[in-house]
Amino acid sequence: MLSRTAQIECSTTISADVVAAAPQPFTWREWMVCAVACVGFAFDTYEFIVSSLIVRPALVALRREPIGSVMFNRAAGLLFYVPLAAGGVFGLLGGYLTDRIGRRRVLVWSIVLYGAAAAASACATSVFDLLLWRSIAVSGAAVEFVAALAWVAELFPARADAKRRDSILGYTQAFSAAGGLLLTAACYVAVTYGDSLPAIRGGHEAWRYTLLFGLAPALPLIVIRPLLPESTVWRRRKADGSLKRPRIGALFDAVHRRTTIVATLLTACSYAATYGAIQQIPRIVPGLLQVRRLAPIAQEQTISAVHLFSDLGNIAGRILFALVVVRVVGDRRLLRWLVVPALIVFPWLFVFAAQSSVDALKLGAFVATVLMTAQLSFWGNYLPKMFPTHLRGTGEGFATNIGGRLVGTSAALVTTTLANVMPGSAAVQLAYAAAIVGTLVHLVAVVGTFSLPEADGAPLPD
């Protein structure tokens, strides 16, 4: 039986723990961090997926190859893959710099970099120019993504904040979906009203205006940069001298090896489904019989309309993930809920819907994108909580950029190459190739979930 004094002391301790664990209200600086991350995520997505809408008209204007020819498909594959591969390499470097010199500095200047490169890509006069500036723009976006995830996650380092951290990471990543909506809107405006806009390189080509809009987030960020705080967790470790130097080799030590390898493989699968299948849909739309009969401007508007359903799927997938992430126990179970249905949806979309009608293609694009973008949100939540402070950006950077953007996005090149040996018209060939790639990577993902380490609601590793 505890003495009265001991009972009072115990009660006081418990009360103190409860108060300490109680969520604190957001400060205006924390709101600003989340707001900047949201804008960054939206335009990251814009830069990552803009190729799906501009590659076809850009190649027609700059290379003048017959659509669907071997050379056209090869150039399209390079324009899809090379910028993303560059983003993979420099995104890993950005993750290292995020751990080395701080979250805020890397995030701000990466957004400025990709904004400037987006403007330069709009003025490209050759395929090489376009490839160069798109590579720089995507590299900046890849760096921003890693820095923003680490920055937002470190707002909630404690075990008591685990659900709040998952929720905020989920909802800020949901703004990635806004990037798809912005892209669809920018493309529609450029196609419909481009003739009344100021000329770029002496013309009014819609794809140039679509690329130019990627400059938008850099302008306000330059003004608000001095108001942004550095991550408290990173700054404290840096100030007391306990922040270790990040090393890529440390990702493969006994503690982190399994997480690094499995997460990198499965992230590659998610990105492969995105770029090897989903991002090929705009090039499949013109092959539908009801679309081939339309005038050129109407065809482009139909492509934008189908892309809108992918955008809506993007929004639904991101929001769905943010809602369920705090309700599903177990990272493996949550990921399986996303990859197993995709094994059914992806083959149906590209074998049946893509050759049936515009309405069927819209439905399939919506459902497939819901499953795909929810997977991408999963990795944004999972990776920051699996690595300590001095390796958080490096670990995220390796899985997301080497696994996702360097290896996973090569599926775009695989799809466009595989299309050359498929039967049927150019659009049908591409649809079959996308079906094969989308199905195979989800088979690998299902098997890989059995080896995925669990985070178990722990605090952020320090």
Tell me about this structure.
- The chain has one domain (28-226, 245-451): MFS general substrate transporter like domains (Growth Hormone, Chain: A), CATH 1.20.1250.
- Helices cover 73% and strands 0% of the residues.
- The protein has 20 helices and no strands.
- It has helices at 4-21, 28-49, 51-62, 70-101, 103-121, 127-153, 162-174, 176-193, 206-212, 218-224, 232-239, 257-276, 281-284, 289-292, 296-324, 331-352, 358-382, 392-408, 410-418, 426-448.
- Helix 4 (70-101) packs antiparallel against helix 5 (103-121) and helix 4 packs antiparallel against helix 19.
- It is globular, with a radius of gyration of 23 Å.
Question: Main traits of this protein?
Answer:
462 residues; mainly alpha; Growth Hormone, Chain: A; globular
List the helices and strands and how they pair.
Blueprint (H helix, E strand, L loop, with lengths): L3 H18 L6 H22 L1 H12 L7 H32 L1 H19 L5 H27 L8 H13 L1 H18 L12 H7 L5 H7 L7 H8 L17 H20 L4 H4 L4 H4 L3 H29 L6 H22 L5 H25 L9 H17 L1 H9 L7 H23 L14
Short characterization:
It is built from 20 helices and no strands.
Total strand segments = 0
Mean pLDDT: 86
Task: Assign the CATH architecture.
Answer: Up-down Bundle
Radius of gyration: 23 Å
CATH classification, class level: Mainly Alpha
CATH superfamily: MFS general substrate transporter like domains
- Number of structural domains: 1
Q: Largest beta sheet, briefly?
A: none
* The CATH topology: Growth Hormone, Chain: A
Helix content: over 70%
Low-confidence stretches: 1-21
* β-strand amount: under 5%
Structural class: mainly alpha
Distance from N terminus to C terminus (CA atoms, Å) equals: 38 Å
Determine the number of helices (DSSP H or I, runs of at least 4 residues).
20
SSE succession? HHHHHHHHHHHHHHHHHHHH
Coarse morphology: globular
